[in-house]
Amino acid sequence: MAKPKTYEGGCLCGAVRYRVAAEPVFPHLCSCSQCRKWSGAPTLAWVEFPLSAFEWTGPAGPPRLHRSSAKTQRGNCPECGGALCALDDGYENISLVIGSLDRPNLIKPDQGHSYRSARPKWWRVEVGTGR
Ligand SMILES: [Zn+2]
Ligand SMILES: [Zn+2]
Predict the structure, then answer these.
(1) Which domains does the chain have, with CATH numbers?
(2) Could you point out which of 65, 79, 80, 90 has its C-alpha 20 to 30 Å from the C-alpha of 58?
(3) Nearest listed ligand to the Cα of residue 68
């Protein structure tokens, strides 16, 4: 079996960086009000990776976590505030916002759109087939 690709990303200022070498899991869109309020964006693109293959590599270490709901924490850079990840209690994967990847073209969020009907009605989202 081929070695999995390495994905790297981080926040706007570079204080929080990450690296993961694993197959992406469940790349999808979400338009729930939590994602919207947290990021300021009408829709977020997410991808999961196993925590076992994941590491924080930037000078600030891991992001600052905010408990956004009973079972979920969301992580932002403590310096610039950049939105990076979500962690569900007891879950084996970390969820990353695809926009934080250095090369967001590598992962296409084509496995569904959670809370699609919660998006602003003027917002049309389409995941194209291009690379
Ligand atoms: Zn930052
Ligand atoms: Zn959401």
Answers:
(1) 24-118 (3.90.1590.10)
(2) 90
(3) 2
For residue 116, give the 3-state DSSP assignment. Answer: helix
Q: Which amino acid type is present at position 79?
A: E
Residues of the chain with pLDDT under 70: 1, 130-131
The order of strands in the sheet holding 54-56 is 6-10, 17-21, 54-56
Tell me, in angstroms, the distance from the centre of ligand 1 to residue 2's CA. Answer: 33
Output the CA 47–ligand 1 centroid distance in Å. Answer: 20
17 C-alpha to ligand 1 centroid (Å): 9
What b/e string do you get for 69-99 counting C-beta neighbours within 10 Å, with b at 16 or more?
Answer: eeebbbbbbbbeebbbbbbeeeeebbbbbbe
pTM above 0.85, yes or no: yes
Instruction: Report the separation in Å between the CA atom of 103 and the middle of ligand 2, taken as the mean of its atom positions.
Output: 22
